[in-house]
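Table 4 source record.
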Amino acid sequence: MPLRAALLALVLAVVVAQPASADDLKLSVALDQAVSGAAGSVGVVVVDLDSGYTYARDANMRFEAASLFKLYVMAAAYARAQRDPAFLSAPLEVVRPNVQSGAVMYAMTAQTVATAIADMIEWSDNGATAALVDTIGIDEINDSIAALGLHESVVRSSAPSGNTTTASNVASFFRSLARRELVSPEASDAMMWLLLHQDINDRLPRGVPDGTLIAHKTGNSAGTYHDAGIMSTPYGQRVVVVLTSRLDGIAARGLIEEIAFWSYSLPAVCPDWASRT
């Protein structure tokens, strides 16, 4: 988009040419202004991983997790694989709908646990997710969530609705992932690789230059649109989490894109901590 590219070039020229001052547009101010106009509920966390700067707004508000709960299923799968190295190569039967002549038929596909995890993350496949949840078990997934310290997040079913999380919990997940502390360094690397190959790129990636590395996961269900992940910026890696509810799809995607833009474009001023939880 030429307009976005021009605006990004202008912002970067300003912030790189001179040090940040009290008169410059601060990251917290830009994010506040972006969120304040939203008609629904919005939870935002932005973390600069180098400096520790954290912006949080309604970070502890519970949201319908939508497909973000698949992050927790993935972590539980790799935790199981730590105990049972053969788990990732184990066979798995995945049932998916198939429309034929206007009728919905269900077909079973033989996969491995590893390929099902990839399908669940890269294109948010619900059939693969259901098979993984059935195999791992909801109790084990919630035990894994608790072990990660994500006490505000709960998985209740394999459906993309009925599960809850918070922006703070999702940010903690990605912070641990970036530090290679999620399950193990090797598991963290494998999960990061899958998230870097996300096929649904209509939110956070639209707010940054083409080619920017973003390891992220989207989520949407009735009335919710989310995106969360780790992005590379001119200032280092940042975790960006945006959860929304009661916004229409166009408004939600536009808001997430704008938050990504400012999170990429502006420096983090460490003394300027912002928290609205």
